[in-house]
From TrEMBL, chain A:
This is Heterotetrameric sarcosine oxidase delta subunit. Transmembrane segments: none annotated. One of its GO terms (biological process) is tetrahydrofolate metabolic process. GO terms for molecular function: sarcosine oxidase activity.
Automatic annotation (TrEMBL), chain B:
GO terms for cellular component: cytoplasm. It comes from Halosaccharopolyspora lacisalsi. It is found in: Cytoplasm. Keywords: Cytoplasm, FAD, Flavoprotein, FMN, Nucleotide-binding, Oxidoreductase. PANTHER family: FAD-DEPENDENT OXIDOREDUCTASE DOMAIN-CONTAINING PROTEIN 1 (PTHR13847:SF287), SARCOSINE DEHYDROGENASE-RELATED (PTHR13847). Pfam families: DAO. GO terms for molecular function: nucleotide binding; sarcosine oxidase activity. This is Sarcosine oxidase subunit beta. It comes from the Bacteria.
C-alpha cells in the first residue's frame, strides 16, 4: 500500500485516497474551436510514462481536498505534494 | 535400506531454439507473450510469412500471459466484442489438436453472478444478446446456480445474495504457460526466431515508415513491425511521438495452497470485484480489480487483496480456512472504453495490438489471428475493423465496462 503525504493532513494510507489520474490536463478553452482529433485527444488520451508522472489524488476519507504528486510509476517513489492547481475537476 | 540408484530422466527436448537475432526480418513482433506468439503463428500458418522475429525483453511469456487467472469466455455484451471473443473461443477449441499439445483446456463453465435486481436485468440482457449472436450464454436462477456450483453460498442470507447468474458452458480455463510453450514450439518449427533477452528500446524511421527497431542487442531492420507489448506499449510508442489512449495499471491475483478438488467451475462477480476458480493442481486462483494508480512495478497494494479475499469468503464460506500461498501482479494497459486497440498507426508499416486491460488472455488466439491478418495485408480483418485507433476521434467506442467483468 502506498503511503501518501496529504499536504494538509500528512502521511496517510492509500486506502484513504482516490486517484485522479494525470495532473495539469486543461480543458480546451473554446471546445468549438478544436477539431474532432484534438477533442478526442483531450477526452481520451493521457500520458502513460514509465517513470516520473504528475498525478492528482483526493483525500476522500480525510480532508476531501485535491492535490498533485510527482510519482515514479516504476518505483512508486513520491515527491513534491502540492495543492492542486486546477482545483476539483 | 538403500534405495537403488536410478538414472534421472533425460530432460525433455527443447521446445524452441534460442537463436541470435538476424540483422533483418520481414516482420518483427515486439513481445513474446501469448498474443505475440499467436500472431507469429498465424502469420506463418495462414499468410506464408516465415521470416519473423518475436523479440522479448525478458523471458518467453513472462508477463501477463502467465500472470492471469486462466479464464476463457466469450460472453461479452456488444456485437463487436462477442464476434472477436467468440472467434477466439472457437480457436481455443481447435488449438490443442492443431498444436499437438494438451494444455488442459477445461470447458468447466463460467458463472457470472448477479447480486442486485439491476444486475439481474443487466445479466439477462447480456445472456439474450449473446444468444442472438449465437453464443451459448444462459440465465440460471438461484436454485440452478446452487446445483451447478454447490460451494457458493446461495442461501439468500449471505451479505451478497445470489439472485442468479449467467452461465457459459463452453467457457472454462486453460493452463496458460503451456499455451505459450505450445505456440512457441509450433512457431519455431515454422522457422520463426523467438529471441529472448532482447528489449526493444525504440524505432528507426524514414518519413512515415519504420525501418526497424533498436534493441539491447543492436538494431534490427524490419519490413513491418507489430507491437504486442501490452502494458509496455506506451513507452515504445512515446519514442515515436504517437500518443495512445492507454493507461498501465497493476493487476493482482493470488493462489491458495493445494486443496482437494471442490470448486467445479469459474465464478465471477462484478458486484464484489472477485473471480475464483480452482486450478488442476488444486490451488484456488483468485483475481480482482486493478489498482487505481498507473504503475509499471508489477506490484500492487495489499488492501486490494484484502478486499477481494473478504468478498470471496462471503461468496464461498468454506474457503475461509484456506491460506494464501502467494500473490503477484502484472501490468495491464487499459483503454477508456475497456476494449482493445488492434490496427494500423500513423506509421504505415507499424501496427498495434494493445489495450486489452485485464481481458487479453482469453482472446489470445483470436487476437493473434486478426493481428496477423492486419500485419500481413495492411488492412484490418473484419473482426478487428471496429477496434482501430480512429474510434477515439469518431466517438464510435466499444463500451464494454459492464462485461469485462471486474477489472477496469
Amino acid at each position: 500500500m502506498l503511503l501518501i503525504h496529504c499536504p494538509w493532513c500528512g502521511a496517510r494510507d492509500e486506502a484513504e485516497f482516490r486517484y485522479g489520474g494525470q495532473a495539469h490536463v486543461d480543458r480546451p478553452p473554446d471546445p468549438n474551436a478544436v477539431d474532432d482529433r484534438e477533442w478526442g485527444e483531450y477526452l481520451f488520451v493521457r500520458d502513460n510514462p514509465r517513470g516520473r508522472f504528475s498525478e492528482r489524488w483526493v483525500h476522500s476519507a480525510g480532508c476531501r481536498r485535491w492535490f498533485d504528486v510527482v510519482r515514479d510509476t516504476a518505483t512508486n517513489e513520491m515527491s513534491a505534494e502540492v495543492p492542486s492547481r486546477s482545483g476539483r475537476r | 535400506m538403500a534405495t537403488p540408484r536410478r538414472t534421472p530422466p533425460e530432460p525433455p527436448a527443447r521446445l524452441w531454439r534460442n537463436p541470435e537475432p538476424k540483422s533483418r526480418y520481414d516482420v518483427v513482433i515486439v513481445g513474446a507473450g501469448g498474443h505475440g506468439l499467436a500472431t507469429a503463428y498465424y502469420l506463418a500458418r495462414d499468410h506464408g510469412i516465415r521470416d519473423i522475429a518475436v523479440l522479448e525483453r525478458g523471458w518467453l511469456a513472462g508477463g501477463g500471459t502467465v500472470r492471469n487467472t486462466m479464464i476463457i469466455r466469450s460472453d461479452y455484451l456488444l456485437d463487436e466484442s462477442t464476434a472477436l471473443y467468440d472467434h477466439a473461443l472457437g480457436l481455443w477449441e481447435q488449438l490443442p489438436d492443431e498444436l499437438e499439445y494438451d494444455f488442459s483446456f477445461s470447458q468447466c463453465g463460467v458463472l457470472n453472478l448477479a447480486h442486485t435486481e439491476q444486475e439481474v436485468r443487466d445479466s439477462r440482457r447480456r445472456a439474450f444478446a449473446n444468444q442472438l449472436n449465437g453464443v451459448d450464454t444462459e440465465w440460471l436462477g438461484p436454485e440452478e446456480v446452487a446445483e451447478f456450483c454447490p460451494v457458493l453460498d446461495t442461501s439468500g442470507e449471505s451479505r451478497y445474495p445470489v439472485l442468479g447468474a449467467t452461465l457459459q458452458r463452453r467457457a472454462g480455463t486453460v493452463e496458460h504457460d503451456h499455451v505459450a510453450w505450445a505456440l512457441a514450439r509450433k512457431c519455431d518449427e515454422m522457422g520463426v526466431d523467438l529471441v529472448q533477452n532482447c528489449e526493444v528500446t525504440g524505432f528507426r524511421t524514414e518519413g512515415d515508415r519504420v525501418t526497424g527497431v533498436r534493441t539491447g542487442r543492436g538494431p534490427i531492420s524490419a519490413g513491418r513491425v507489430g507491437l504486442a507489448a501490452a502494458g509496455r506499449t506506451s513507452p515504445l510508442t512515446d519514442t515515436l511521438g504517437v500518443r495512445l489512449p492507454l493507461q498501465s495499471h497493476p493487476l493482482q491475483a493470488l493462489a491458495s495452497e493445494l486443496l482437494e478438488p471442490v470448486h467445479p467451475c469459474a465464478v465471477m462477480s462484478n458486484h464484489v470485484h472477485v473471480y475464483c476458480s480452482q486450478a488442476h493442481r488444486g490451488e484456488l486462483v483468485l483475481g480482482g480489480g486493478i489498482d487505481s494508480y498507473n504503475g509499471y512495478a508489477q506490484r500492487g497494494s495489499v488492501h486490494l487483496v484484502e478486499r477481494q479475499l473478504a468478498a470471496a469468503v462471503e461468496l464461498f464460506p468454506m474457503f475461509a480456512r484456506a491460506h494464501v500461498l502467494r500473490t503477484w501482479a502484472g501490468t495491464v494497459d487499459v483503454t477508456p472504453d475497456a476494449s482493445p486497440i488492434i490496427g494500423p498507426t500513423p506509421y504505415g508499416n507499424l501496427f498495434v495490438n494493445c489495450g486489452w486491460g485485464a481481458g487479453g488472455f482469453k482472446a489470445t488466439p483470436g487476437a493473434g489471428r486478426v493481428f496477423a491478418h492486419t500485419i500481413a495485408t495492411g488492412e484490418p480483418h473484419p473482426l478487428n475493423a471496429p477496434y482501430g485507433l480512429e474510434r477515439f476521434t469518431t466517438g464510435a467506442l466499444i463500451d464494454e465496462h459492464g462485461a469485462t467483468g471486474v477489472a477496469n
